[in-house]
């Protein structure tokens, strides 16, 4: 089972590398992208049940990743929100948690931790079947 990720990242190179990494290592399909707060909010509000995880950068071409969080306020318990930023300071981490973010990862040092989070949270590779499965199944 592949998970559906909505990626909110305005840097094309970062976004491409992130998508390639997650699709290869964490069994995730990027089902959509946004470069601005308004694009992200519009898509999330129009597609409330079409994503499993939203990966949000804080600094966007227009607006802020923090502003996107309001569009995720009615998400289901199984839908996860993570922030991926170059500014993962203790204050930013605290503020994101207050706003309902499940995890915060630093782009420079915690991409592997993001991959591990996705695999641990949503599923893992089963070498017996050479395929992915949801944990606990």
What do these coordinates show?
The protein has a 5-stranded parallel beta sheet with strand order 2-1-3-4-5, sandwiched between helices. The chain is globular and about 30 Å long. The chain has 5 helices and 7 strands. It has a single domain (3-133), classed as Response regulator (Rossmann fold), CATH 3.40.50.2300. By secondary structure, it is of the alpha/beta class. Strand 1 (3-8), helix 1 and strand 2 (28-34) form a beta-alpha-beta unit.
Q: Are there runs of 5+ residues with pLDDT below 50, and where?
A: 125-137
- Tell me, briefly, the overall form: globular
Output the CATH topology. Rossmann fold
- Major sheet attributes: 5 strands, parallel
Element string (H = helix, E = strand): EHEHEHEHEHEE
The strand order across the widest sheet is 2-1-3-4-5
CA distance, first residue to last residue: 12 Å
Write the layout of secondary structure elements.
Elements: E1 3-8, H1 12-25, E2 28-34, H2 37-46, E3 53-56, H3 65-68, E4 80-85, H4 90-98, E5 103-106, H5 111-122, E6 124-126, E7 131-133
Parallel strand pairs: 1-2, 1-3, 3-4, 4-5
Antiparallel strand pairs: 6-7
């Amino acid at each position: 089972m592949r998970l559906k990720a909505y990626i909110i990242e305005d840097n094309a190179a970062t976004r491409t590398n992130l998508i390639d990494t997650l699709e290869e290592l964490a069994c995730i399909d990027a089902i959509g992208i946004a470069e601005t707060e308004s694009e992200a909010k519009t898509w999330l509000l129009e597609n409330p049940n079409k994503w499993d995880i939203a990966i949000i950068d804080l600094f966007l071409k227009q607006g802020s990743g923090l502003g996107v969080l309001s569009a995720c306020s009615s998400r289901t318990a199984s839908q996860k929100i993570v922030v991926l930023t170059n500014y993962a300071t203790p204050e930013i981490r605290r503020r994101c948690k207050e706003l309902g973010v499940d995890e915060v990862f630093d782009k420079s040092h915690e991409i592997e931790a993001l991959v591990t989070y996705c695999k641990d949270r949503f599923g893992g590779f089963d070498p017996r079947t050479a395929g992915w499965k949801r944990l606990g199944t």
